[in-house]
Amino acid sequence: MSALFNFQSLLSVILLMICTCAYLRSLFPSIMDRNKTGFLGVFWKLARIGERKSPYVAVACIVMATSLLFWT
After folding, report:
1. Alpha-carbon gap, residue 25 to 47, rounded angstroms
2. Following DSSP, what letter does each residue of the chain receive, concatenated?
3. pLDDT tens, 17-34?
4. To 5 degrees, how large is the angle CA 55–CA 58–CA 61?
């Protein structure tokens, strides 16, 4: 099934995008900061979510990892 039709896969993709964008912004802040609007602004917003809500994102990643390991 596609990630769009499976809710657990969709959540995994969203969490991975948040973590990836936050990590890339920490490495290359100038690339992310110049694209705040338009289509590429989505990645900037995901990076901001990853930076500001990092404890919640970390807990969500741990919960998702355990659910994928033990209940799939």
Report:
1. 7
2. --TTT-HHHHHHHHHHHHHHHHHHHHH-HHHHHT--SSTTHHHHHHHHHHHHTHHHHHHHHHHHHHHHHH--
3. 999 999 999 998 988 888
4. 155
Q: What sign for the dihedral angle of Cα 23, 26, 27, 31? A: positive
Query: What do you get for the CA distance between the two ends of the chain, in Å?
Result: 14
> What does the block give as tokens for 16?
């991975």
Confidence of residue 36 (pLDDT cuts 50, 70, 90): confident
Rounded Cα–Cα distance for residues 38 and 30 (Å): 16
